[in-house]
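Feature request, filed as a ticket because there's no other form

It would be nice if the structure record came with a short human-readable summary line next to the tokens. Right now we just get the raw output. Example of a typical job, pasted below so the devs can see what we mean:
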Amino acid sequence: MVYTEIQVKKGIKYYYRTLTLRDNGKFRKIRKYLGKGLSKKELVEKEKVADKIVKTESKKYKKVKIGEVKLYKQSGAGLALTIGLPVYAIQRKPIDMGDGLEIFYKGDLMYSTPDLQFLHYFLADDMLETAKEIFSRMEKDPDWMKKRINEFRQAVKGFEQLGEKLIKAGETFSEKNKQKAIEVYEEFLQRDYEYWRPSIFIDLFDKFEDEIIEFIFKGKEKIISKESLQFLLLPNRSVFWQEKEDFRNIKEYMQKNNLKKTSRPLWEKLKNHANKYWWVNNDYQSVKKLTASKFLPRLDERSENPFWKNISKQKKDLIVKYSLDKKTVERLKQFNEMTYLRDIRKQYTQIANYYIITFFQKIARKLSVPVEWANFIIPFKEYGGFLNKDKKLLKDLELRTRKGVWMFGVDIDWKTNVETAKAPELFELVEGHLKGGNILYGNSASLGKARGKAKIILRQSDFDKFKEGDILITGMTRPEFVPLMKIASAIVTDEGGITCHAAIISRELNKPCVIATQTATKAFKEGDLIEVNANHGYVKLIE
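Raw output as currently delivered:
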């Protein structure tokens, strides 16, 4: 049934054309924002247009049959426990971003593998219309992305304090205060969702690099050199650049005052740095709270070139050189800010992962349950069963250490929304369309050519096998990969877009980089001699 929904905020009426669908015994709403304070005539006209849109949107919810569609893949080191947090944001319901904009990841699947990797899939091509809708909003409102950043910052206020409260609940967990631990965890889960809500849309753009460039430059990209284009797409700021700058200041303070590493003033600065950046090496699998002593070895490293200090000036020079108009600059700035939003989201994800892993590990020890079983908990639906030591759940968790576990979105044609027993068979079904080959094509994130030995690096425990001059091949890079990226001759990833970590850091390091190959980690073997041609966007097996 299609009807007009009215919401009143501060005395103003906001109108939505709404279609209600029945979905697995539940009701789902598809809404199209019509406007505010509309006259009857305006309302009728907008309703006619909106009816076609919501009916087209309803087709999104047609069930997706696994193995019959080509899915876009994201991957990396990770646990069901941690990657389940953003999956919760995606799979619980379409995310309402206001004014009728809803983010829905069609065909969403996530597989947590027995060897602690995550594979995330969705129908990226079906999200182009959503991307275009966001383009439209950015075009109309130059501050649209800034507003999303402000929403994010509001959502993470006090998040670390809540995380410490969660760890305390794990440390003091007992049968008597079990309900209190559940309440604290549910508060943490909701707060985590609140910061994903204004930022979850970023990932849908990874597939639409050409559309992004066309939207920003409106054809002017044809007269801009590839090097200049990639530089313009760099963010103007980064949490991780700021960390480097702060640490650089500590080294300069040490050298200027001729201090020893045991100096009290130096240690105070290192402690303050650790308090601010303790999370910097975390990912979806490995977490640790860094102390001052963990930063100490970096004092012996050669200082990096702080190229980020000159980014703004160089961009201004390029804007003048290519005569970019005000509207183009505004659109470019919005995407620079989107990269920054992804950056601070990464920061709080690394913080959140530390707290949730630590909490469940403490609970596992209290319950005398193998700690590794906690890696496979679905964090938004199985926490109560785990804290209550549910026998069926514990049996499933033990099985998942051997088979892994799948989580399905609401539009997946499967009997359950979680699958353990048939997990390996499902993997073969989903990955059937992803073929390897002696030559793979992707997107050029940073120009250049290189030859070298392929090293497949999927997790931090793989880092030791990487040698200078090797070619780094991974699902996606994260901040902890930077030391490897510095000594790599080239970088190749399965996934990513122009705002991803690999794209930004490879440009910073001036390393050839090809992203979004989808199958590089499968197509090449350890030690293969390969050629990376990022000028033309391909990776080729030599021998």
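Something like this underneath would help us a lot:
The radius of gyration is 24 Å.
The mean pLDDT is 91.
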